[in-house]
Amino acid sequence: MRFSQLFEGGPTPPDKPTAPPMSSAAAVPPARAVPVSAQPSPPTPTAAPIVPSAPFQQAAEMLYLEALGTVRQLVQLASAGQPVSSLPLPELVQKIIAQLDHSNALLYVTGRSTDDNYLIGHIVNVTILSLTTARSLHYDAAKLRGLGICALLYDLGMAKLLSIAATPHKLSGEAFKEIKQHTQYSVELLRSWGIAWEGVTEVAQQHHERADGSGYPAGLKAGSIHEWAQLIGLIDVYESLTHPRAHRQQPTPAAHVIAALLSSRDLFEAKYLRALLDQISLYPVGTWVQLSSGEYGQVSEVTPGMPMRPVVSVQFDHQHRRLPVPRHVNLREQMSLLVEKVLDAEATAKLVGGLAHG
């Protein structure tokens, strides 16, 4: 699969080499898109316990809803061209960083989408995933805060173009030309709001620039692109492809996206691609898999440097029977086991949602 083919129906970068073939051990994780309503969804009664402890999971759910609410307000103001009175974004970013420092529970909710307005969930997910990926870049506290603030603001120009973005088919040339204006709309909006945080306008302007100069709007190359714009631009692509859009209801599996990105390494600097692979991995946190033992579980932790060997919370035996207590299996330590396959959305629903029995 060429990297450009992943964008069928939307913005299309130049053709790139085909992604390297993947072995059965590197089976493709499914996209984890789940619609988000204004209230948190109730837990599935028959599901095994969520991997993060209940307090962390509850805190993650509440923080995710808080972030959605904040971004929803920003998008509404941006769409209406109204001024903003206050922006408590540093506090929100600090909460996200603190949550990520103590638990990976937030990563379980980044598979969700806001089906009434994709942009809201997209921005929140990009923020969380960017801060997660930045762990491998060893940013200090100030740089993490700056990165997070930029991620919450970088794409607000799309609020003026939601009717075009909602087109349920491949964009025409004229429509795509208009979509490309969202970077300038973002800059104009942020300047009208008097935003002066470091890097904000640069990231808004440059997040579609690419290391080889093939991006837009200015065709900048790696050395001229703000580092946060490069990272957020990479996560923007990853999040977009692994979640549904109006023109593409079936998301692209995470491993396909990452493999294609790695085969198109001239678009993004290697250090950002390595960070994505280390922190998000081929099997993102929350992915349901079947092990070579026949057991079923949910990825609870990725292993930097070993993307095919995550930590899995085994919750069902080979006969689909729910275990009384989940059993954690670290594939880095148990080399005789591997991920045999990844469950798609339908298989996951059947396993977790009622066909399993105890």
Describe, in plain words, how this protein is organized in 3D.
This protein has 13 helices and seven strands. The chain is α+β, with helices and mostly antiparallel strands and 358 residues long. It has a single domain, classed as Hypothetical protein af1432 (Orthogonal Bundle). The strands form two sheets. A five-stranded antiparallel β-sheet has the order 6-5-4-3-7, with no helix packed on it. The chain has a two-stranded parallel sheet with strand order 1-2. α2 crosses α4 and α4 packs across α10. It is globular. The N terminus is likely disordered.
Q: What's the level 1 CATH class?
A: Mainly Alpha
CATH fold description: Hypothetical protein af1432
Principal-axis shape equals globular
Cα(first) to Cα(last) distance is 41 Å
Kindly report the spatial arrangement of strands forming the biggest sheet: 6-5-4-3-7
- Low-confidence parts lasting 5 or more residues at pLDDT below 50? 1-50
Helix content: 40-55%
Number of helices: 13
- Class based on secondary structure composition and strand pairing: alpha+beta
The oligomerization state is: single chain
